[in-house]
Design brief:
There is one protein chain. This protein starts with a helix and ends with a helix. The protein has helices at 3-20, 68-77, 103-109, 120-123, 141-147, 173-185, 207-216, 261-274, 290-294, 321-335; strands spanning 42-44, 53-55, 161-162, 167-170, 220-228, 248-251, 278-280, 301-309, 317-320. By secondary structure, the chain is α/β, with parallel strands linked by helices. The chain is globular, with a radius of gyration of 30 Å. The model is unreliable at 1-66 and 68-84 (pLDDT under 50). The relative contact order is 0.11. The protein has a four-stranded mixed sheet with strand order 5-8-6-7. A three-stranded antiparallel sheet has the order 3-4-9. It has a two-stranded antiparallel ribbon with strand order 1-2. The protein contains ten helices and nine strands.
Length: 337
């Protein structure tokens, strides 16, 4: 399909969207293709594989053959036999409508303002709780309150599942991944006193770590967590935090704590010497339980070992299992050094 043909199809699609919203932009006057005159049918492509179909377009000025609508409806529901020979007009590609699209329409497609579909206020506003609803299938308010009284907890029900090559997708991997690593570390014995803490409510004020720090009064703390990777292709390199598949991210500083310099350097040397995949977290971003622990009582040396996560704090967090293993190996190597 040529670029001109693609532009023609795009113009029709935009016209449909805008019309549904009740506002047809002025550029649509240049579109000499009427929605009601576009007829699609599956046609076998002679040069492609047996299961390939193309969409055939009938220009608006072409007289509609008898029974076209019913024939097309049947064609859309029933795969075409491989041996069937279709009329030449059904194998016509999008270039048949190119002549019916004015050049001005193609030139003005790039100027289409899609912001009309959503107001500026909507794009910069997060819905409040009173604007969010969960449909539980109740027939009325009484049944809803009986099955789900006010104050009932709701949570995302995302299953843990493999995702791509060596990745997994699940809810709240920050900080379920840190809990997993701690459980694995608890299988080992160490030449020093080690206290494992599962701290609660980090995201709403690090409340669990405050109490744990007062109770334990640690000398050295390794904080195991997930951190935002921010590594997608649309992000400029200077804004990327860390990269999945590149190992555990060792943080020198974030918005809650500063990694103790000697501890930070020792962890990097240990990872390098042990062949453990690692990277330095490249942005001062986020915060975690290390902040209150570092400043509680007499203070403590802290450093954060993070697993890079995409779509953090969401029901569909993605991480690389090799990075989880690297977090475990580095923490274990430090505790057993």
């Amino acid at each position: 399909m040529s670029a001109r043909g693609l532009a023609a199809l795009a113009a029709v699609g935009m016209m449909l969207v805008c019309a549904a919203a009740g506002a047809v932009p002025e550029h649509c006057e240049y579109i000499s293709v009427q929605v009601k005159a576009i007829h699609a049918a599956y046609a076998k492509t002679p040069s492609a594989g047996d299961n390939t179909r193309i969409v055939a377009i009938q220009p608006m000025n072409t007289p509609e053959p008898a029974n076209t609508a019913s024939e097309h409806a049947t064609a859309l529901q029933t795969p075409a036999p491989q041996s069937e020979q279709y009329p030449a007009e059904l194998r016509t590609r999008a270039d048949e409508i190119e002549s019916s699209v004015n050049d001005a329409a193609i030139a003005r497609l790039n100027d289409l303002d899609m912001s009309a579909l959503q107001s500026a206020a909507d794009r910069n506003r997060v819905l409040g709780f009173d604007g969010l609803y969960i449909d539980i299938g109740a027939k009325d308010k009484a049944e809803a309150l009986a099955k789900c009284p006010v104050g009932t907890y709701a949570y995302f029900d995302t299953p843990y599942q493999p995702f791509g090559d060596g990745f997994v997708c699940a809810k709240a991997l920050d900080d379920r991944v840190g809990c997993y690593t701690i459980l694995e570390l608890m299988r080992e014995t160490y030449p020093c006193d080690v206290t494992f803490v599962f701290a609660v409510q980090e995201e709403v004020g690090c409340r669990g770590s405050h109490g744990a720090a007062y109770g334990v009064q640690p000398d050295i703390v390794l904080n195991l967590e997930g951190t935002a990777a921010n590594d997608l292709g649309c992000v400029d390199d200077q804004f990327k935090v860390c990269r999945p598949t590149q190992g555990v991210a060792v943080s020198f500083m974030d918005k809650a704590s500063i990694g103790q310099p000697e501890l930070f350097a020792e962890l990097l040397r240990l990872a390098e010497g042990s062949g453990i995949a690692h990277q330095v977290k490249m942005a001062v971003a986020g915060g975690n339980d290390s902040g209150p622990i570092q400043r509680t009582g007499c203070g403590a040396k802290v450093c954060v070992l993070s697993v890079p996560c995409r779509y953090i704090h969401s029901p569909s967090t993605v991480l690389c299992l090799e990075d989880v293993e690297a977090q475990y190996l580095l923490a274990k190597a430090y505790l057993t050094r």
